[in-house]
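Hi R.,

As promised on Friday, here is the backbone we talked about, encoded as structure tokens. Could you run it through your design pipeline when you get a chance and send me back a sequence?
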């Protein structure tokens, strides 16, 4: 026992005077380093120890500080490899092999950037040829932290081949493929994304505190996990009950209520987890969903079937007060409903979600599956239930808890998934995010530029920042109803006022019934086209036309565009333009006719508006009808000429 205690004391003394030589986890076999820039290499060792970094003919010696932090900076090098990097200190040595010099891009955002190649269109063809693609990926593991982290929790560089490429970010892979083919260099992707996250998750605390608009919210955010839990619970109750006293409903009470009763509940959508519906984020418990279905009286005499997609929860299904199904249901089920189930007029479909989810890949309660898997079907018609016309209410009379997730507060992902990447040398950033910020779309005009500026300041580099404009998803409402998605696209376009930024417009390749469209190749290629022009200064690469100005003359408007120098076209076999609206001084919009004039302008008019003062195009969540393109094949970005108050202007991040 005495020998063991002595050995333990010696070990403790040794650990206090000696720290193992390590590097940040980004430095590893198969890594890609940025060509033509200084390359910082950093890590940790014993305090004040001398560290030598040898790479590609360079040998840099530095000394660690009092805390054991060290950083060596290699001089710029041209593309090439494979090389070996050797790092030594005292008797210790690290050796990293198969290191390439090429182009390094960070790929970040939410689930559409996280979306893996194996789930995208064209995967089999890409898998077959992937081993010939000089593309490598470092996947940053998911982690949240209340304080900035020095290093990542894990990760490794992986070369694209048939066994690995399916796990690559799909958008990033297609982006890298185009760059690699054009520039003839290895492309390294640092994939750091988390589905469903707000932009505020990816901004540093200091940046938000320095923003006049966001600092009040930032100051109110908790700095302990207990504080986060209390905040989330308070927000849930305020959200669910609109700051009114909580009510513990029973299924029997709700089943007997008319359809009009549920109008006071919060809006929700299906398919979709509650995870993505307002302050229901990270809620783990039970609850109710309701939808009003209007039917002609003749359907009361007809049998039907109902299908509600897929869920891991046990369900109880009520239609106008009558229980029609209860208990566990297999995947892809449907329930037969006899004649007399429905009535003429408004019917109330109430779903009780009774058990917590068991599938760790499916966050939160809700109805999952494809949009065409939710319906009521009669012999002669189908009523689609996939829309945002649902109402939600958590059942707080039952046990519930929260999982700590990024949107519970702010900063968490910057702290653990971005800060540890700094100052790794990069060419730029591609970003696909915004779906989770559509409720506060107007404020995104502040939030998104702040994020870009924050990252650039941290890296001390004005690198290119390229982003994906939101694709089409949801309804096709007109401008008189308003659209948070359209307002967020506008906020993204306003962000283009920052230098060295660019956007890929994707409204034509979205999916109105699926927030995760599978065409990721066009997204990646459009980002690459902008990168090759903006970052690499190559000619012959184009981008989407953007609204420039509108001239109102008498009964019509003439719209001018940027990036339309090669002309515009209607992507319609009859040559008709769709997606335009006009309004007069009364701010009331009407669908309008339009035609291309002078090759690069659009004339817009309609009989209902004799003196137009505002024109809009594709101003809806899912502008699937919008068909104005450049002759280079790029869709025109949605726009409006007015600055009238939208539906999200009063909503703020809390």
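Update: got your reply. Pasting your designed sequence below so it's all in one thread:
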């Amino acid at each position: 026992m005495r020998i063991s205690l002595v050995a333990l004391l010696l070990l403790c003394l040794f650990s206090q005077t000696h720290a193992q030589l390590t590097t940040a986890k980004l430095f590893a076999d198969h890594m890609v380093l940025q060509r033509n820039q200084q390359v910082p290499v950093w890590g940790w060792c014993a305090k004040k120890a001398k560290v030598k970094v040898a790479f590609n003919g360079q040998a840099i010696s530095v000394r660690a500080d009092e805390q054991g932090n060290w950083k060596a900076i290699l001089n710029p090098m041209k593309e090439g490899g494979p090389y070996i990097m050797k790092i030594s200190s005292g008797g210790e040595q690290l050796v990293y092999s198969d290191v390439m010099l090429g182009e390094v891009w960070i790929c970040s955002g939410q689930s559409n950037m996280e979306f893996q190649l194996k789930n995208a269109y064209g995967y089999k063809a890409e898998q077959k040829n992937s081993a010939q693609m000089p593309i490598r990926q470092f996947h940053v593991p998911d982690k949240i932290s209340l304080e900035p982290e020095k290093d990542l929790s894990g990760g490794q560089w992986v070369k694209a081949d048939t066994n690995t490429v399916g796990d690559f970010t799909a958008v990033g892979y297609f982006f890298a493929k185009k760059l690699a083919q054009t520039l003839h260099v290895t492309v390294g992707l640092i994939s750091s994304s988390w589905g469903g996250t707000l932009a505020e998750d990816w901004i540093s605390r200091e940046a938000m505190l320095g923003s006049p608009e966001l600092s009040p919210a930032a100051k109110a955010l908790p700095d302990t996990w207990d504080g986060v839990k209390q905040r989330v619970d308070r927000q849930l109750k305020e959200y669910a009950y609109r700051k009114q006293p909580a009510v513990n409903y029973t299924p029997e009470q709700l089943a007997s209520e008319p359809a009009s009763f549920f109008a006071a509940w919060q809006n929700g959508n299906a398919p979709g987890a509650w995870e993505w519906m307002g302050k229901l984020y990270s809620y783990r418990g039970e609850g109710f969903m309701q939808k009003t279905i209007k039917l002609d009286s003749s359907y009361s005499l007809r049998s039907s079937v109902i299908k509600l997609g897929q869920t891991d929860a046990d369900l109880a299904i009520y239609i106008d007060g009558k229980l029609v199904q209860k208990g566990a249901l297999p995947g892809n089920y449907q329930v037969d409903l006899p004649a007399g189930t429905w009535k003429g007029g408004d019917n109330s479909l109430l779903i009780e979600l009774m058990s917590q989810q068991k599938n760790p890949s499916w966050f939160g309660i809700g109805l999952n599956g494809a949009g065409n898997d939710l319906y009521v079907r009669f012999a002669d018609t189908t009523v689609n239930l996939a829309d945002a016309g649902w109402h939600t209410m958590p059942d707080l009379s039952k046990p519930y808890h929260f999982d700590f997730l990024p949107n519970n507060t702010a900063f968490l992902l910057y702290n653990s998934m971005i800060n540890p990447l700094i100052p790794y040398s990069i060419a730029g950033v591609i970003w696909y995010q915004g779906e989770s910020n559509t409720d506060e779309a107007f404020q995104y005009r502040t939030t998104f530029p702040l994020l870009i500026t924050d990252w650039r300041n941290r890296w001390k580099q004005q690198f290119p920042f390229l982003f994906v404009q939101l694709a089409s998803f949801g309804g096709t409402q007109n401008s008189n109803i308003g659209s948070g998605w359209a307002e967020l696209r506008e906020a993204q376009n306003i962000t283009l006022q920052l230098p060295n930024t660019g956007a890929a417009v994707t409204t034509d390749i979205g999916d109105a019934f699926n927030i995760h469209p599978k065409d990721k190749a066009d997204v990646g290629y459009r980002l690459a086209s902008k990168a090759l022009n903006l970052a690499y200064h190559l000619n012959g690469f184009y981008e989407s036309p953007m609204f420039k100005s509108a001239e109102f003359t008498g009964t019509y408007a003439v719209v001018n565009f940027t990036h339309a120098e090669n002309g515009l076209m209607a992507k319609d076999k009859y040559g008709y333009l769709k997606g335009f609206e006009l309004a007069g001084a009364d701010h009331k919009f009407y669908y309008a006719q339009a035609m291309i004039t002078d090759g690069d302008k659009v004339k817009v008019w309609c009989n209902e508006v004799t003196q137009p003062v505002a024109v809009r195009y594709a101003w809806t969540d899912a502008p699937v009808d919008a068909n104005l393109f450049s002759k280079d094949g790029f869709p025109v970005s949605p726009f409006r000429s007015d600055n009238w108050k939208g539906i999200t202007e009063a909503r703020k991040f809390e």
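One thing I noticed while checking it: The two ends are 57 Å apart (CA to CA).

Thanks again,
M.
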